[in-house]
Amino acid sequence: MNTDEYLHFLDRALDGMLAVLGELGDERANQAPPFDGANSPWAITYHCTEVADYWIGHLIGGRESTRDRDAEFTARGTIADLTRTITALRANLHKDLDGFDPAAPLTNTPPADYEGPSRQLTPIGVLLHVLEELAQHHGQVEVSRDALSTAPTDAAL
Description:
By secondary structure, the chain is an all-alpha fold. It has five helices and no strands. Helix 1 packs parallel to helix 5 and helix 2 packs antiparallel against helix 5.
């Protein structure tokens, strides 16, 4: 499997999310759009970094994880900080997938909810799950941008 090609598609999703955040600026990127239960585009993008770090870094790469999934959705910060986080994540993912063997067992056990009813989750399944998450959240960030771009800022209220 060509992991560089796979990582190219993760990069496209992450780059797309960062571009949207750049359009919004730090203030709006940290605002939730006016939908029930919505999260800010910054928090969604941060969540994606944690998804990739946990699923690829922990389950395949064997790195330790102290992930706090609930905190990901209330996280706030600057676009510059998130850009640095994504740069470090990319370097780690390249290391995690160096010598990737799709037939090898996972290094760590995924949450039970992600194990199939008739078989265990495979490394390919982990990679597909991460791609699925980043693709859907990229779209969510774009929809959030559209909603925030038509809503007044907190300062204007």
